[in-house]
Design goal:
374 residues, alpha+beta, Tick-borne Encephalitis virus Glycoprotein, domain 1, 2 domains, four-stranded antiparallel beta sheet, 8 strands
Length: 374
């Protein structure tokens, strides 16, 4: 494999690693300086005495003190034409106790604010975020997830945006290992090799279309059938599941390539199959990463936090790390063109796919969690 292509400096790769570092920094800021939890509100006829108040501990957010009092003014369940719940709506009354301009010794002079919390539409109030979590069976009370994280979410979302831009730009940059692998697969830069390169590129596009079609089909199979729970009634559901299923489809093709690579008699053919697996690994891993972070944004809208170590998201992260290690195989294994290296890579591709299978099937049936919509 021509090393001169693989050793070139790649700015996109640098930006990808920088984005991941920013995401980790944002997660640490959220962990150490943010505040998350749940609060139970009841709304009886005497609403003025049923409010709950809470405050963030002094110094938890870099010396910033924030306190808000709220009580439930009204709660409604909205139904579709077939009588199925489509949204939960909580109307709140709020008082920012850290804002002296709203406070007054005379309670009748206090400035009371109002706000509405809906599924997938959190209420933002003076740095606080409130999300609909649950409700009482009598309809007179709700459970809200709350979040006070002035800096962590912004840092993390900046990392998400930079990562997405870097991953898209990666495929258009001529100085990437992905392009080097494509050229290696075609065998050179002469006219015949260029024609071969175009054929391989067309084949990869056809394969991508096939994988996307399979992902859409699988999405129809695995997506919960109507009536959907209100938390699932968002355009992010289709995007999140489709991108994840596209990644899983490509991982399955890579695993099949691994089996083929082990049984082929010709070392040259085994190496070319390995090259194809390495090429497919880039869009597969990028799709999985994108799907995970779309899910994180959705979770932040629905549950008030973008990461909660739910079994499904945890194992998806483990799977992403496993395939990221495969992506760095030349560095980890000091890649060469020997038959031993090719066999080891094919075996690694097969083993890695078991993490996909456990994430998809094992977690759902053995571990459960918030991703089990029964």
């Amino acid at each position: 494999m021509p090393s001169k292509w693989l050793n070139r400096k790649c700015p996109n790769g640098t930006f990808i690693h920088l984005a991941l570092a920013i995401i980790i920094v944002g997660a640490l800021v959220t962990h150490f300086f943010g505040m998350q939890g749940e609060i139970h509100l009841r709304a009886d006829k005497a609403e003025t005495v049923t409010y709950q108040s809470f405050s963030s501990p002094e110094g938890r957010s870099g010396g910033v003190s924030a306190s808000v009092s709220l009580f439930l003014w009204d709660f409604n369940i909205l139904y579709d034409d077939e009588g199925n719940p489509k949204d939960f709506v909580s109307e709140l009354r709020l008082l920012d106790r850290s804002n002296k301009s709203q406070m007054s010794n005379d309670k009748s002079q206090m400035s009371i604010d109002s706000g509405i919390v809906r599924m997938n539409k959190p209420l933002k109030y003076h740095g606080w975020r409130f999300c609909q979590s649950d409700y009482d069976s009598d309809g007179m009370g709700v459970v809200l997830a709350y979040n006070y994280d002035p800096w962590g979410i912004g840092i993390t979302y900046t990392g998400y945006a930079l990562l997405l831009i870097a991953m898209i730009a990666f495929f258009f940059s001529p100085r990437t290992r992905f392009r080097a692998l494509l050229k290696s697969l075609t065998g050179g830069a002469d006219p015949a090799a260029k024609r071969s390169y175009r054929l391989v590129r067309a084949g990869l596009i056809a394969l991508a279309v096939f994988a996307l079609a399979m992902a859409i089909i699988m999405t129809k199979v695995v997506t919960p059938k109507p009536p959907l729970q209100p938390v699932l009634q968002t355009p992010l559901l289709g995007i999140h599941v489709s991108v994840i299923m596209l990644a899983y489809t490509l991982f399955a093709i890579i695993a099949i390539n691994g089996v083929i690579g082990l049984v082929l008699p010709s070392p040259e053919r085994r190496e070319r199959v390995g090259l194809l697996s390495q090429i497919l690994l880039y869009p597969a891993l990028f799709c999985l990463t994108t799907g995970i972070f779309i899910g994180a944004v959705w979770a932040n809208m629905s549950w008030g936090r973008y990461w909660g170590w739910d079994p499904k998201e945890t194992w998806a992260l483990i799977t992403m790390i496993v395939y990221a290690a495969l992506l760095h195989w030349p560095i980890i294994a000091k890649a060469n063109a020997s038959a031993k290296h090719n066999a080891a890579y094919h075996i690694a591709c097969i083993v890695a796919f078991f993490f996909v299978l456990f994430t998809y099937f094992g977690v759902s049936y053995l571990l459960g969690g918030l991703h089990s919509y029964n």
